[in-house]
Amino acid sequence: MNRAQVIANKLKQLDIREYRMGFNDGVLNECRDALNEFDGSGDVFWNKMLTSNKDFAIANYFDNDQDLLDYFTEVDEKSRGPGAFVMPQWGTKGT
Hints:
Blueprint: H1 3-16, H2 27-39, H3 42-50, H4 54-61, H5 66-79, H6 89-93
């Protein structure tokens, strides 16, 4: 098993259970945690996905597999759909 397979397996699990993003956990978090359990590389993955260095993440974590990257995006978008956490009005305007 490699990192891309770890991500693919996690995405499949999330997709099957129709995962919805919570207050502080999204698809990126779930994949980071799976990679940390696999080989401890999740924090680097997280950093590269949130910075302008996505090319590094695509090469080293997605094995340059555009289909896997598209699946990541699809599952991430679904996770933000109906049933996902939404910041309450008071949370966006202060307390």
